[in-house]
Design a protein that fits this description.
two-stranded antiparallel ribbon; Multidrug-efflux Transporter Regulator, Chain: A, Domain 2; 41% helix; alpha+beta
Amino acid sequence: MMEKLLNPQALAEILKVRLGTVYSWISRGVDIPHVKIAGTVRFGEKAVMDWILQKEREKREGIWNFKIVLDRGYKVCIIVLP
């Protein structure tokens, strides 16, 4: 079975960020997993959730300076720490 693909708007809603932030991440080369299909950007739902969990592991190891809060309903909050 093929993984569910999210469009940028759906990803922005899940991550609770502006749509422009998603496009900015892509253009700046942020390592969020995505594919381009016929000129459109899509994000694998499982791949994105794995990416979030990986970033949380990196944060715990002191590699990153942000906090990710994830609950059962895919509500995500990313807080950049000073």
